[in-house]
Amino acid sequence: MAIISTNQQIQPATVQAAQILWNYMKLDKPLAACDCIIAMGSHDLRVAEHAAQLMLEGWAPLLVCSGGLGRLTRTLWHEAEARKFARIARQMGVPFNHILIEDQSSNTGQNIQFTRDLLESKGCKIRSALLVHKPYMERRSLATALQVWPEIEYRVSSPPGTFLDYPNKDITQEELIHVIVGDFQRILVYPRLGFQVTQDVPQEVMNAYEELVRQGYTRFIVNTKAAGEK
Fold it and tell me: How many domains does the chain have?
């Protein structure tokens, strides 16, 4: 089921501004071996596939699939994101006994906190983790992890692809821009709410964000006065 069904033609200037936000949010850092991979749940099953592939390539010996139902999937699915992710990983060949499922979280902060609690309850001593999320969530997932669980080291990865080829049957380019704008706004406001560490934001990136807000791409902007959802 697609998140929205519109197929509005996006103007080149809008695409350019969205591309600037995409480039900022996607960190493109090199991989390194870690103690576990944390596949952070979402509507995008490509994240599950990428996490499983990294597991099969030997980047970590343990895969944690984290996610209940979040702001996008709660209207689309009845099954927890983590359970969908774990099923994909098993189908791709990841051994059942190398997968843990955390299926109660509903936001990025809970992904990290509940995963930490799960690993501790299993007696897993973790010194490093590879966070796997959507491309435009790399920066925000890392900023959240450094705030919630700062004692360990992190790497971040996401499925390969560009802003232009990311849209598929589940998310249109128009909806993608709305989502990216909302996630970028959280980069700005969540540090002062204690949800993330502060990020430097170049003026070019702020200008692109403000232009997209001016154009009305505000569907997922958070109300900072009532922000309780990470």
Answer: 2
User: Is residue 208 within 8 Å of 20, Cβ to Cβ?
Assistant: yes
The residue-averaged pLDDT of 181-196 equals 96
The span from the CA of 27 to the CA of 37, in Å, is 17
pLDDT at 13: 95
pTM tops 0.85, yes or no? yes
Nearest to residue 134, comparing CAs of 198, 202, 43?
43
Same domain? For 61 and 101 the reply is yes
Residue 4: the pLDDT is 39
- Amino acid, single-letter form, for residue 218: T
Q: Are residue 125 and residue 64 in the same domain, yes or no?
A: yes
- Domain extent, residue 213, equals 12-24+162-220
Q: Say yes or no: 166 and 212 in one domain.
A: yes
Q: Are 144 and 186 in contact (CB under 8 A)?
A: no
| DSSP code for 31 | P
